């Protein structure tokens, strides 16, 4: 099967072509420069940029894969969760193309695609499920932080999620307090490498809580009050580095501790991590150390597939279509608030075979 997939859930415009589990192309147009002046993503601007970029990245993806639209066997796009106006662009474009080509179409859950991205590896990148193990998965991105127990392919259950600020939000918001440019997460990571993570004792919210939920608003507030009460701290470059290192250490400590504790409680021997924040070197390093101590297998999503991308959407879609993992009637609309729930082929995946 050859499949064309689109991803437009937030501020990355993505198109990819996959065939039989292999990524033939994966093209992404970033909007960072557009939103930098606003310190965050502006939904209306993101949607307009998707409209401008999607034809370009779709053409580039098909050209790189040497597969024209007429030779696609199926189409896919992110259905949710995400920004409504942004989701509409990719979802309706793929849906319309599927109708015109009389091919199957499937709408994919963005977080579920992240969930299975650690099982992509190799050159060319290939989805490898033959050695799939039950695992506890940390999905950590700008807007969401989730812990998910995965018993087998398409059988998973959310253990905990974000109560307020997600880890990525905390990176960006504390970075903004420090005067760092958007997106602040990568800037904090860069400066933290030259700082002392023990310089400031920031709170580790819910780190000892028995539940698997996450809350980072308290950490953000702690940084805000520290800078309010000691405004001159931000004038010292080394102190800024120490602040970044201490903020990063607090976030990473929570993510690692709760992930490992959940894996031990669930009795699994495999941990996975994915999502944009999973690019963070400190997080990857500390997960590796913790998994080594516990004799866990650790699978991390490839760095270039941690951020929002269409390849992970396409690979998941390709496995769902032949599995007939669809409920009638087919879903035809976006789902901006779509929650990741237990899924033994039971969520509204959005296949539209009526056109075929």
Describe this structure in words.
- The chain has 356 residues and is α/β, with parallel strands linked by helices.
- It folds into two domains: 2-125 and 306-320, Nucleotidyltransferase, domain 5, CATH 3.30.420.40; 135-301, ATPase, nucleotide binding domain (Nucleotidyltransferase, domain 5, 2-Layer Sandwich), CATH 3.30.420.
- The chain is built from ten helices and twelve strands.
- A five-stranded mixed sheet has the order 3-2-1-4-5, sandwiched between helices. Strands 10-9-8-11-12 form a five-stranded mixed sheet, sandwiched between helices. Strands 6-7 form a two-stranded antiparallel ribbon.
- Helix 3 (84-101) links the parallel strand 4 and strand 5.
Could you give a quick summary of the protein structure above?
By secondary structure, this protein is of the alpha/beta class. Helix content is 40%, strand content 19%.
CATH architecture of the largest domain, by name, is 2-Layer Sandwich
Query: What's the number of domains?
Result: 2
Contiguous helical run count: 10
Helix content: 25-40%
Question: Shape, please?
Answer: globular
Number of strands: 12
Tell me the structural class: alpha/beta
The overall pLDDT average reads 91
Major β-sheet, in short?
5 strands, mixed
Computed CA radius of gyration, to the nearest angstrom = 20 Å
Order of helices and strands: EEEHHEHEHEEEEEHHHHEHEH
The name of the CATH superfamily of the largest domain reads ATPase, nucleotide binding domain
> Strand percentage, roughly?
15-25%
Distance between the termini: 15 Å
Name of the CATH class of the largest domain? Alpha Beta
What is the CATH fold-level name of the largest domain? Nucleotidyltransferase, domain 5
- Walk across the major sheet and give the strand order: 3-2-1-4-5
By oligomeric state, this entry counts as: single chain
Which stretches are poorly predicted, pLDDT < 50 over at least 5 residues? 323-330, 344-356
């Amino acid at each position: 099967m050859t499949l064309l997939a689109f991803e437009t859930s937030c501020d990355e415009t993505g198109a990819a072509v996959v065939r039989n589990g292999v990524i033939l192309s994966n093209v992404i147009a970033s909007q960072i420069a557009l939103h930098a002046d606003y310190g965050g993503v502006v939904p209306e601007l993101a949607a307009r940029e998707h409209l401008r970029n999607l034809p370009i990245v779709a053409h580039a993806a098909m050209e790189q894969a040497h597969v024209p639209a007429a030779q696609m066997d199926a189409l896919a796009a992110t259905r949710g969760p995400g920004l409504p106006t942004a989701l509409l662009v990719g979802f309706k474009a793929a849906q319309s193309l599927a109708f015109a080509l009389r091919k199957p179409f499937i709408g994919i859950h963005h977080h579920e695609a992240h969930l299975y991205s650690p099982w992509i590896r190799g050159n060319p990148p290939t989805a490898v499920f033959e050695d799939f193990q039950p695992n506890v998965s940390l999905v950590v991105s700008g807007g969401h932080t989730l812990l998910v127990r995965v018993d087998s392919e398409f059988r998973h259950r959310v253990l905990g999620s974000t109560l307020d600020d997600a880890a990525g939000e905390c990176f960006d918001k504390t970075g903004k307090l420090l005067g760092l440019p958007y997106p602040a997460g990568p800037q904090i990571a860069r400066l933290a490498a030259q700082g002392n993570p023990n310089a400031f004792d920031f709170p580790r919210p819910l780190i000892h809580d028995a539940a698997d939920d996450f809350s980072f608003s308290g950490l953000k507030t702690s940084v805000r009050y520290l800078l309010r009460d000691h405004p001159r701290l931000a004038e010292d470059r080394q102190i800024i580095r120490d602040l970044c290192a201490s903020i990063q250490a607090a976030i990473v400590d929570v993510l690692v501790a709760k992930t490992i504790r959940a894996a031990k409680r669930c009795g699994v021997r495999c941990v996975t991590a994915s999502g944009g924040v999973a690019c963070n070197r400190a997080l990857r390093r500390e997960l590796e150390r913790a998994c080594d101590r516990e004799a866990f297998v650790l699978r991390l999503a490839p760095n270039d597939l941690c951020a929002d991308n269409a390849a992970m959407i396409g690979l998941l879609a390709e496995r769902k279509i032949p599995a007939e993992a669809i409920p009638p009637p087919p879903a035809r609309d976006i789902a901006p608030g779509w929650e990741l729930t237990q899924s033994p082929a039971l969520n509204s995946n959005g296949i539209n075979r009526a056109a075929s």
